[in-house]
Design a protein that fits this description.
Structural class: alpha/beta
Helix content: 40-55%
Binding site for ATP: 247
InterPro entries: aa-tRNA-synth_I_CS, aa-tRNA-synth_Ic, Rossmann-like_a/b/a_fold, S4_RNA-bd, S4_RNA-bd_sf, Tyr-tRNA-ligase, Tyr-tRNA-ligase_bac-type, Tyr-tRNA-ligase_bac_2
Keywords: Aminoacyl-tRNA synthetase, ATP-binding, Cytoplasm, Ligase, Nucleotide-binding, Protein biosynthesis, RNA-binding
CATH architecture of the largest domain: 3-Layer(aba) Sandwich
Number of domains: 3
Largest sheet: 6 strands, mixed
Shape: globular
Strand content: 5-15%
Number of strands: 13
Subunit structure: Homodimer.
Distance between the termini: 63 Å
Family: Belongs to the class-I aminoacyl-tRNA synthetase family. TyrS type 2 subfamily.
């Protein structure tokens, strides 16, 4: 019986190993479509010994990644640990079109030079999560460039305008009279064609990618392939616990930030949000996670678990020594403490530039002086050194410090 017949029969029993793999796959996901099909793919893989092909495509639109970007990479690593083949697809061709997902205007296309520059650091950073030696790296220009004009026309004939207009962002833009360029229709088609070229069994993406992932599934049927399943991951909230993690919102944890900075930022998240980070980012097993939650319910200090999470993440993106040093640094600063009697101020206008924040908090005479203090490493938020002069501070409550003796408890809205 060939692999396709095995799947089509849909009568393969689900062993304990397959059910465990399915539970790991579903951990923290937004949707797994279609779950029954994927269960059978897992069962077939176990029976034949042939690993599944798991695809993740990323357009190199920016050179740096933060923890929010790693949510889907973390899921890829879990699937990699289960023995499946993960394909890290760099969208050097699709980047030139520009992904319209979630956009209310046409996304500016990147130049070839910008794409190549950004792509240089992409896999290096992704390898902090993935097992680089077991990862298949591909560029979609491999099969997209050779398509040519004839191939693009043939591919375009496989999807109707009506089906494209089912996309929520296209529908909203059309109703609002906002221009939609014809080339934007090509993006989901080309992403879908990637799945055909790679013969993907499963494609991962954020929740905003669902339409594109489904196009890949349909195109595979058109090309006589077994359709891929799709798995969407939620968007990780940032340090404020409200908005999605974003550098522009200043609520991010960069994966290349210093270990001490990363540690302190993890410690700043709320106890409630800690579980979300554990679920989406930690390698902690489902059984251990359940045990941790039970321990907290029975009186264990959640701070201890937050420390463990902070150490795990620093060790992953740096090394164990950096994690140990970060813990020591955090404890030393904790012992130093913050004076009990410090001025309080309430400000508005979040997100607020760090220079303006220092000025309006009366810790610096001018925003320029504040930026100089940032350059000199003399500014801290909740004990963490701020090094980014372009930082936009999100709303919340925090202690702002300049030098060793100037403090302010700030409520920013």
């Amino acid at each position: 019986m060939n692999p396709t017949s095995l799947l089509a029969s849909k009568d393969l029993p689900l062993s304990d190993a397959v059910q465990n793999a399915l539970a790991i796959t579903k951990r923290g996901v937004d949707e797994l479509l279609i779950e029954s099909e994927f269960a059978q793919k897992l069962a077939r893989s176990e029976k034949t010994g042939i690993p599944l092909r798991v695809k993740l495509g990323l357009d190199p639109t920016a050179p740096d990644l933060h923890l929010g970007h790693t949510v889907v990479l973390n899921k890829m690593r879990q699937l990699q640990n289960l023995g499946h083949t993960v394909i890290f697809l760099i969208g050097d061709f699709t980047s030139m079109i520009g992904d319209p997902s979630g956009r209310n205007i046409t996304r500016p296309a990147l130049t070839r030079e910008q794409i190549e520059e950004n792509a240089k650091s992409y896999f290096a950073q992704a390898s902090l999560v993935l097992d680089a030696e077991k990862t298949e790296i591909r560029y979609n220009s491999e099969w997209s460039d050779p398509l040519g004009a004839r191939g693009m026309i043939e591919l375009s004939s496989k999807y109707t305008v009506a089906r494209m207009m089912e996309r929520d962002d296209f529908t909203k833009r059309f109703k609002a009279g906002t221009p939609i360029s014809v080339h934007e229709f090509l993006y989901p088609l080309m992403q879908g064609y990637d799945s055909v070229a790679l013969k993907a069994d499963l494609e991962l993406g954020g929740t905003d990618q669902k339409f594109n992932l489904l196009v890949g599934r349909e195109l595979q049927k058109d090309y006589g392939q077994e359709p891929q399943c799709i798995l969407t991951m939620p968007l990780l909230e940032g340090l404020d616990g409200v908005e999605k993690m974003s550098k522009s919102k200043g609520n991010y944890i960069g994966i290349t930030e210093p270990g001490n900075t990363m540690f302190g930022k993890v410690m700043s998240i709320s106890d409630h949000m800690m579980w979300r980070y554990y679920e989406l980012l930690s390698s902690c097993s489902l059984a251990d996670l359940a045990a941790h939650k039970k321990a907290v319910q029975e009186g264990k200090n959640p701070r201890d678990l937050k420390v463990a999470l902070a150490q795990e993440l620093v060790a992953r993106f740096h090394n164990q020594q950096a994690a140990d040093d970060a813990l020591t640094d955090f404890m030393n600063r904790s012992k130093g403490g913050i004076p009990d009697d410090i001025p309080e101020c309430t400000l508005s206008g979040a997100p607020l530039g760090i220079g303006q924040l220092l000025k309006q908090s009366n810790l610096c005479a001018t925003s320029s002086e504040g930026l100089r203090m940032v350059e000199q490493g003399g500014v801290r938020i909740n004990g963490e050194v701020i090094s980014d002069k372009n930082l936009q501070v999100a709303k919340g409550e925090f202690v702002l410090q300049v030098g060793k003796r100037k403090f302010a408890k700030v409520t920013l809205s």
